[in-house]
Design goal:
Rossmann fold; three-stranded antiparallel β-sheet; binds adenosine-5-diphosphoribose
């Protein structure tokens, strides 16, 4: 099998290390780089992951590197096609994603500047929270064109929604399709018209299978799903589903697959919304976001999406100064 290219994951905590593991196990890259400011941590994980190759049967090489805020060590990311930014602090129980804004802004700004210096052609996928704001900041700090900077949220929120519906109905997850757009937070917008379930060989709208109040309750659970995990873990936040989402996005970019998935992407008038990073469906490839895919929304869905755009925009106005 032909392997090519290089993917980098910045931040080797729970989210970053599992993302690197997934990317390496796809066995499509020549190299997966993992960096962190914790001395020796990335090198240790890379050694451990490389030792799993004979067992799991993949040849992608993992390279771990300790970096510093002033950019030393960053030469290891040169020529990366895609860089996933997971550096930052996760939530503690009771915290909202927005509570992380101040501390993670400083981290993401520095990381984005170093990416611009050492991998100026890369596509950046941001996962650090608060997601929409950190994606906005990474674009500003890197100076990259908007289509080469995106954030991961919708693939995860959609997966959570799909799982909750499948679990409620006792169906395989493969029999359920859901979609959420909007922000990765309070203004997440479930798209009911795109939610379907396959039952007895028939595809039905979710709204035909569950009453509105039950769907609302499931959506509310999706909105709080990250916090639900944080409350159970007590230290740290979710990473298995988040890393699966980020790795699939990075794969779509690196392989130029053209896959359409929800992503936090820059809008230029789609849905009547412009100049803001927001969760919409996007076609991904080597250029990053190849195009935004607009679908027919109900009047209510459209109104909610515009509200989400306005909410992110209001916050994003402060982000440039962080
Ligand atoms: N450069 C590189 N790595 C950094 C930097 C930096 N400037 N600052 C912090 N890190 C590293 C930390 O050393 C740590 O290893 O980021 C890692 C974060 O890992 P965890 O604390 O395990 O957090 P994780 O669960 O991986 O979440 C990371 O993703 O979902 C979001 O809200 C979450 O913002 C958080 C991010």
């Amino acid at each position: 099998m032909a392997r090519s290219g290089k993917a980098t994951v910045i931040g080797a905590g729970f989210y970053g290390s599992t993302t690197a593991q997934r990317l390496a196990e796809y066995d499509i890259f020549e190299e997966v780089v993992l960096t962190d400011i914790r001395d020796g941590w990335s090198e240790g994980l890379a050694l451990d992951l490389n030792s799993s190759r004979p067992i799991e049967g993949f040849e992608t090489r993992l390279v771990g590197k300790t970096t510093t805020a002033d950019g030393s060590g960053y030469e290891v990311i040169e020529d990366s096609e895609v860089v996933v930014v997971t550096a930052g602090v996760p939530r503690k129980p009771g915290m909202s994603r927005m509570d992380l804004l101040g501390i993670n802004a400083g981290i993401v700004r520095g990381v984005a500047e170093n990416i611009a210096r050492y991998a100026p052609q890369a596509v950046i996928i941001v996962v650090s929270n608060p997601l929409d704001e950190m994606t906005t900041l990474a674009q500003i700090a890197s100076g990259f064109p908007h289509h080469r900077v995106m954030g991961q949220a919708g693939v995860l929120d959609t997966a959570r929604f799909t799982y909750f519906v499948a679990d409620r109905l006792g169906l395989p997850v493969g029999a359920v399709k859901t979609l959420t757009l909007g922000s990765h937070g309070d203004t997440m917008v479930p798209i009911a018209s795109a939610c379907t379930v396959d039952i007895n060989g028939q595809t039905k709208l979710l709204a035909e299978v569950l009453p509105p109040e039950e769907i609302d309750a499931l959506v509310e659970r999706v909105r709080g799903a990250g916090a639900e995990v944080v409350a159970l873990l007590k230290t740290g936040s979710a990473y298995y589903a988040p890393s699966a989402a980020a790795a699939r996005m990075a794969q779509a970019v690196a392989t130029d697959s053209g896959a359409v998935m929800p992503a936090c992407a820059w809008l230029t008038g789609q849905y009547g919304i412009s100049e803001v990073y927001l969760g919409v469906e996007a076609q991904l490839g080597k250029a990053g976001v190849k195009r935004i895919v607009e679908r027919d929304l109900s009047a209510e869905e459209l109104a909610q999406l515009r509200l989400a755009g306005a909410a992110v925009k209001a916050k994003a106005a402060d982000v440039a100064s962080l």
